[in-house]
User: Which sequence fits this backbone?
């Protein structure tokens, strides 16, 4: 099975940089995804790391270290609209298909 | 544009009723998923399907069943609804790719069982 741990809440101010960590324990681990969910909305995909290192997409970056079973999402130049919940999800494959297990989510509050 | 739709945004049912939640995707994706989301518990996988008529149990399948007769449609069935199944239900689909794991989610169905 899989389990993923991430902080429940993070608060930061507009314009700042914030890092949301995710540690995982999983068998058959293949990669780590990040999703954003605004209140009342559906989760939307942000990024995916299958290999060690940093993936950058605009203001958002995601990092993976397979040897440490650890990843993080880095949000730069924070904006008020970044206030949302962020989920890490570990992808694992069995004999048939891949499935992702989600962490419990981190609520990010961006203050003026 | 990618689209996943769910049959209802809000649903109220009584204990013991049979409940059908339907999900349709228009992206020709092989994989489809049903999750439930409860406050503080993230998204928990109920069932997923990797092909028509193929299904696998997720982490919390008890009390649920699924049906996938056509590629675009994945149904979640609560055979006899109970109050502890009151939750937000999210459907998602994805195309199996080794280099990424992008799941596209529907808007969710908030189910209340009285």
Assistant:
């Amino acid at each position: 099975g899989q389990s993923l741990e991430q902080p429940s809440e993070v608060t930061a101010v507009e314009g700042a940089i914030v890092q949301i960590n995710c540690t995982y324990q999983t068998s058959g681990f293949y990669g780590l995804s990040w999703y954003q969910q605004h209140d009342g909305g559906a989760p939307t995909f942000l990024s995916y790391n299958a290999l060690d290192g940093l993936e950058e997409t605009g203001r958002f970056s995601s990092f993976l270290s397979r040897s440490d079973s650890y990843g993080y999402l880095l949000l730069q130049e924070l904006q008020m609209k970044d206030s949302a919940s962020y989920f890490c999800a570990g992808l694992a494959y069995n004999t048939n298909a891949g499935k992702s297990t989600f962490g419990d989510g981190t609520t990010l509050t961006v203050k003026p | 544009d990618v689209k996943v739709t769910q049959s209802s945004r809000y649903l109220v049912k009584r204990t013991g009723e049979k409940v059908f939640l339907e999900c349709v995707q228009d992206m020709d994706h092989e994989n489809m998923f049903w999750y439930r989301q409860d406050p503080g518990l993230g998204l928990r996988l109920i069932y997923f399907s990797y092909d028509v008529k193929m299904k696998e149990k997720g982490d919390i399948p008890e009390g649920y069943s699924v049906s996938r007769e056509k590629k675009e449609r994945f149904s979640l069935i609560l055979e006899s609804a109970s109050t502890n199944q009151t939750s937000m239900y999210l459907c998602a689909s994805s195309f199996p790719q080794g280099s990424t794991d992008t799941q596209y989610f529907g808007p969710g169905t908030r189910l209340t069982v009285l």
In short: The first strand of chain B starts at residue 4 and ends at 6. Chain B touches chain A through 30 residues (CB under 8 Å).
